[in-house]
Amino acid sequence: MSIVHVETPGGNYPITIEPGQLGGLDALIPGNATAIALVTNPTIAALYGDTVMEALQRSGKPVIRIELPDGEQYKTWETLNRIFDVLLQHQLDRKAVLVALGGGVIGDMVGFAAACYMRGVRFIQVPTTLLAQVDSSVGGKTAINHPLGKNMIGAFYQPVAVAIDTRVLATLPDREIAAGLAEVIKYGLIIDADFFAWCEENVQALRNRDPAAMAYAIQRSCELKAWVVSQDERESGLRAILNFGHTFGHAIEAGLGYGTWLHGEAVGCGMVLAAELSARVYGLPASVVERVRALVQAIGCPVQAPDLGAERWIDLMRVDKKAEGGQLRFVVLEELGKAVSRAVPDDALNAVLERIPQV
Description:
By secondary structure, this protein is α/β, with parallel strands linked by helices.
């Protein structure tokens, strides 16, 4: 077992990384819990629902199971209300604990529900996708989507624990692995150039789900994110660098329709665009831009951005959470392993968007 500790003003908690721990989740339930609500989706429930239910029932607490529809397109108010409906119907109180068993969509919605229900109840993240394990389950960002923007309605709310069972990676489609690896290499790009180089050297092992390579990639990603979040829980400064590639990526998701591309696929492509923007703003060497493009392609993510039209790109990015006063801000690389968030000149952004092939 590896344990990474997250320390924030909103709460301190462990991230446990260990194969097979789905069967022992009862150990994470606080002793004073009055009830447990397991929230998942039908896909994950079919694979792990019974194992997790049995583990949670061993805690001696009443356990209810809530299944939500599977997919980014269901990350909405309507779906969120399904959680509240069941919690209220079963009269769960403030000492209840919610357990999020699933990918980023489940984790985000359960976290937001926990932040809102009774003005705040405890919750545990049990991420079942690589992307959720290395990114969305850590740091306390919770949200739902709005037709005008991704993750625009939510709260900063920390879990009491994150349990990462690496065995679940075996059941993921290759596309989900690629999407998760996009977030893994992001940490190297923005904080740790040596880790980026390690990802380049081990990309085939990662794509093949080599247990040792995956375990290290997950642990290092969690360590780097925990370090950032501990210094800036609410994204008032440093934490913004975690959004490298996301302003472009969120525009792709909204522009194509949520669920058309996976979040990690959009971020991977967005990182290529952000690297090109970095070259124009900070003179990032062309060789580094090419390394970014080559690694994103090597992990299996798209490197060719969709043709949304320059005006549509701008409109979508203006409703991104990183915009300030209507002015677009981007995370760009001063150099490999060093990122900053800043407003960029219109001509630099337009030059990048104009390079997207028209179809």
